[in-house]
Amino acid sequence: MLKIAICEDSDIQYKILDKYLRSWALKNNITIHLVHYKSSEEFLFNLNENMDVDIIILDIQMERMNGIELAKKIREKDEEIAIIFVTGVLEHMSKGYSVGAINYLLKPLKEDELFDSLDRAYRKIKQLKEKKESLKVVTDKQIVKIKYSDIKYFVVYSHYVHIELLNKKITYKKRISDLEDELPKTHFLRCHRSYIVNLHFIKSIEKESLTLDDNTIIPISRGKKEKVLEVFMNYFDI
Question: Which InterPro entries match (predicted)?
């Protein structure tokens, strides 16, 4: 589901945006959830709960705090949310480039121009999501992008990282400490000085080892036992 926030003080303009957004979602078979705010202040008051918004459509001309100022506040919290500006005055369009907006649309809004901006925003969102859910590996021969969901575990020996995937193995040179920093803690756990495992594939934990779904046995360092058990129980909500 795509969450879209609209910050627009005109009810008429909001109804137009609502109609166009639902039409775009239907055309692209995308489920959307729309949230409407009538002022920058109202949006800021709910800022923390708005940090899961994917796209924000901002009217530049609003009373008190305008859309440009609001966008700068948003960027202090999040650099990735897709922002689309709408304005009735051409001269305002040059003021918002510093916040990295997807586009600036002039009122009266044209459906095809909004659709184009939404397409660009959606592509950006998918690219960011894909980047967050994959690991870039540089080997001697190629650069490979690997989905986290395909990685069972990493093991390091002879100064090389060996990645055990669902259907193959990849080897490349990297320090395990650097790899550990690069991987999301929500997916991976370093259970041994030479091993990092994908939490999703852990079947059980024993006294000195853990077993994966394919019955691979991975050692657990003595000093990491409590941490491994804690992370495992939290991950599977035990």
Answer: CheY-like_superfamily, LytR-like, LytTR_DNA-bd_dom, Sig_transdc_resp-reg_receiver
Residue at token pair 């949006």: 43
Q: At what angle do helices 111-132 and 11-28 cross, to 10 degrees?
A: 60
Q: What are phi and psi of 106, to 5 degrees?
A: -90, 140
124 and 7 co-located in one domain: yes
Domains identified in the chain, total number = 2
- Helix, strand, coil distribution of the chain in percent, nearest 5: 40, 30, 30
| Cβ–Cβ under 8 Å, residues 42 and 72 | no
pLDDT tier at 93 (50, 70, 90 boundaries)? Answer: low
Give the domain extent around 218: 140-236
* Residue whose token pair is 């991975």: 218
Rounded Cα distance between 110 and 113, Å, is 5
CATH number for the domain that contains residue 188: 2.40.50.1020
